Amino acid sequence: MSLRFEYRVNSDWPQLAWLARVEPAEGVVRVRHGRHVETRPDWFAEAVWAGDFEEGGLDQTEAIFGSGARLRNGGLLLVSSGTTVDRLHSFADGRATFVSNSLACLLMEIGGKLDPADGSYYDLLATMTRGTAAYERFVPTSAGPVRLTYFDNLAWNGSELIEQPKPDAVPDGFAAFEDYRAHLVSTVAAVAVNAVDPRRQFSYRLLGTVSTGYDSAASAVIARDAAGLREAITFVRPDGVDSGHEVARHLGIGVTSFGRYQWREEPMPEPVFIAADAKGEDVFFAPVGPLLAGRVLVTGHGGGGIWDRHRSNPSPTFPRKDRAGLPLTEWRLSVGFQHLPVPYIGGRHVSDLMRIAASPEMAGYDIAGWYTRPIARRLIEEAGVPRELFGFHKRAASILLFQKQNPLTAASARDFDAWLRRHTRDFLRRGRLPPAQLRG
């Protein structure tokens, strides 16, 4: 039986959130969605991708940023982001199968709750750092296990969802630096064209990120060369360290600064970031929200796993040292932006990139020490940024909310205290005391 979509807008949902309910007996996929999700008779998406927008080929590329679904030849494919900073969530109860780009929306739909006294969520959601072949795929809830899917798509076979690999845009890999650079530029150029297609109801303009590290600056270079990137943001520490102003100036990119702790001026910013991964380390993005609506945020997330010269055992499954970027996934659905981490483009061929980085042609860009990323350095230096301005120290911007020096904002602290009081019995039933809140 062929399937068809039925759409219903939920104006009180996050504007890019969607939930598909597959009811095979009726031959219908009922889709509830926020008001900025693009819908067509045979596909829907909250995404930008490398391909013609109206053709809806989001299922035919690995370079998709966001998510959606496609009916093709009578079959259904749920399409995830070509990264591990976003994901799909699915659940089956025997009568219907549910898929959503939002864990919160899925839980609301199925009536599922997380166990407030279960301390395993933090570690479970951190397993995405193991890569797409080894992360924990199921989150326990009161309604039953919810399945997580990173990078791969989900194909409906008539009775259940099956993971399906994305197509590989460069099956033969990369022979040299110029091959790789050309692929990055052409892909970002195609995504940028898709993002402003006049047939869209809601278009997106590029916004970069810059710092004195490698990954964001190299990604901004690609976006500048591919699509004329002219705007970026940077986060500045209280001592002024890590500002990307000088890097951006040499690239001819205007930059807007935000303080690393400016998020503390926002009203209760932490929960939506914590909701994505039980850690919330990207909460420092909170004050940027008004600038991000209708944007494609170009970042360097994942660069450590793709461009690091000393990466041991490079894998095509995107293992990472941290989960930075993932806490943005629920927040971006409300704000209304797409997230494009450039290192994921062609990143399944990381073994080729390690070979290229170690080749004689790259020797001049391989600096001494553990923090060296020759491919990123060459991209940045050839774009006109002096060597001494970047890439000598690794300075993480992440906010670790479990550390005493990063206490919750006052409103969040009050809300958390009230939550702990409401759930004291849940902890006691598990033979645990409620945790004490960290105070600054």
Report on the structure:
The relative contact order is 0.13. This protein is globular. With 440 residues, the chain is α/β, with parallel strands linked by helices. A hairpin with a 2-residue loop joins β6 (64-72) and β7 (75-79). It is 26% helix and 21% strand. The strands form 3 sheets. The chain has a 7-stranded mixed sheet. The longest helix has 19 residues, at 177-195. It has helices spanning 103-110, 121-126, 177-195, 215-227, 245-251, 270-277, 289-292, 303-307, 328-335, 350-357, 374-382, 410-422, 424-429; strands at residues 4-9, 18-23, 28-33, 38-40, 43-49, 64-72, 75-79, 88-92, 97-100, 138-139, 146-149, 153-156, 161-164, 205-209, 231-236, 254-259, 295-299, 338-341.
For the sheet with most strands, the description reads:
7 strands, mixed
Overall mean pLDDT stands at 95
**Total helix count?**
13
What share of residues are in beta strands?
15-25%
Strands across the major sheet, in which order? 1-3-2-9-8-11-10
| Intertermini distance | 60 Å
Low-pLDDT runs: none
Q: Could you outline the blueprint of secondary structure elements for this entry?
A:
Layout: E1 4-9, E2 18-23, E3 28-33, E4 38-40, E5 43-49, E6 64-72, E7 75-79, E8 88-92, E9 97-100, H1 103-110, H2 121-126, E10 138-139, E11 146-149, E12 153-156, E13 161-164, H3 177-195, E14 205-209, H4 215-227, E15 231-236, H5 245-251, E16 254-259, H6 270-277, H7 289-292, E17 295-299, H8 303-307, H9 328-335, E18 338-341, H10 350-357, H11 374-382, H12 410-422, H13 424-429
Parallel strand pairs: 1-3, 14-15, 14-17, 15-16, 17-18
Antiparallel strand pairs: 2-3, 2-9, 4-5, 5-6, 6-7, 7-12, 8-9, 8-11, 10-11, 12-13
Helix pairs in contact: 3-4, 4-11, 6-9
